[in-house]
Every structure is written in structure tokens, then in C-alpha cells.
Amino acid sequence: MRKLLVTAVLVLNFSVPSLAADEFYVAQDPVAKDCQIVKEKPDGKTLVMLGTSSYPSRDAAKAAKKANPECKRAGD
């Protein structure tokens, strides 16, 4: 019984981090004013976060980027 419990704990220990959801952010370069989607929260210096939250998928972040007026440039 003890071996089974130890095995179960080890399996869960290695599988839980792989289940963690990625977060995506819409960020803007404050100098070039280009918007991009990043996986790490912007630091506020090299990239500034647009919006107040993260997005659960790249598609959701892409839709938020497209809807953000700060990311619209002439010709886009």
C-alpha cells in the first residue's frame, strides 16, 4: 500500500506542472508603439501591458490586440 501511495504522489508531482495554463498578455513597445502578444507579464520598461488582465489563450489575446485602439496603425 505504501508503494502505491508513493508512486501516486510522484506521478502527480510530475504531471501537475504540465497542466498549468499558459497566460498571454498584449504588450506595446513604448518607443516604437508596436503591439505584440507575449507569454510573460511585461515589465513596464521595455514593454508596457495593454489592458488589465492576462488571456487564457493566444487566440483570446489576438482578439484583444485587434480590438485595442492603441494597436491600430494606419494601413493595418
> Roughly what is the average pLDDT, rounded to an integer?
81
Structure annotation, total helices: 2
Return the domain count. 1
Unreliable runs, pLDDT <50, ≥5 residues? none
Helix content: 25-40%
The overall strand count is 3
Main β sheet profile: 3 strands, antiparallel
Q: What string, H for helix and E for strand, traces the elements in order?
A: HEEEH
Strand order of the largest sheet: 2-1-3
Terminal Cα span: 63 Å
Rg from Cα: 19 Å
For this entry, what is the oligomeric state of its chains?
single chain
Shape: elongated
Q: Give the helix/strand class.
A: alpha+beta
Overall description:
The structure is a single chain. The chain is built from two helices and three strands. By secondary structure, it is α+β, with helices and mostly antiparallel strands. The chain has one domain. The mean pLDDT is 81.
Keywords for this entry:
76 residues, alpha+beta, 3-stranded antiparallel beta sheet, 2 helices, 3 strands, 37% helix
How would you summarize what this structure contains?
The chain is α+β, with helices and mostly antiparallel strands. It contains two helices and three strands; from the N terminus they run H-E-E-E-H. The protein has one domain.
Q: How do the helices and strands line up, and which of them pair or pack?
A:
Elements: H1 2-19, E1 24-28, E2 35-38, E3 48-55, H2 58-67
Antiparallel strand pairs: 1-2, 1-3
